[in-house]
Amino acid sequence: MVTGAAGILGGAVVEHLAGAGAIVLAVDFAPAIADRGQAASYAGVDLTNADAVVELMRAVGERFGCLHGLANIAGGFTWETVADGTLDSWDRLYRMNVVTTLNASKAAAPLLERHGGAIVNVGAAATAKAAAGMGAYTASKSGVARLTEAMAEEEKDRGVRVNAVLPSIIDTPVNRADMPDAEHDRWVAPQSLAKVVGFLLSDDANAITGALVPVTGRV
What we know:
Layout: E1 2-3, H1 8-19, E2 25-27, E3 40-42, H2 50-64, E4 69-72, H3 87-113, E5 117-122, H4 135-155, E6 160-167, H5 173-178, H6 190-201, E7 212-215
Parallel strand pairs: 1-2, 1-4, 2-3, 4-5, 5-6, 6-7
Helix pairs in contact: 1-6, 2-3, 3-4
């Protein structure tokens, strides 16, 4: 399962996993999800609503029986200084980045535990030191990192691995528009990050859990 599947990174992860032969379930809040080889799509799912996520996992369990992997790609970003910002921005980013990851991971855990599985979350390299305007974003992504570590400890005896990737700037059209003069070739390509996510979901990474893996390109 890939959340945030309608986005740039989510779409790249869906395409990579499907290309590797996985049966991919694409999930997003958007009303429609482009076909990138997924076996099933679940559009219009509000991952901040715990009841909606539980219902999603119930439907998946009835149709597929179990999950072998969950990629929590759903999330968001806002640049806003503390002085000019509002508490609403902190709440919104917490819900977009932490609550979505928490709800999906918690509801998916029983399905992952049936045959052993893996969760991969998306944190941020910027959490090592927040820059101006990055307070709310990096605080929420720090929450994702701590959630990853806690779940890894709680699930390791149940056969479920939990890791996170910590990307720097991802090469997306929005980031290019916001930073037109940057050296875009130094950023992390979505396809490259998708390969790291795929590795952490795979059996080749069965000795890795609780890891926060920097994926920073040449930034």
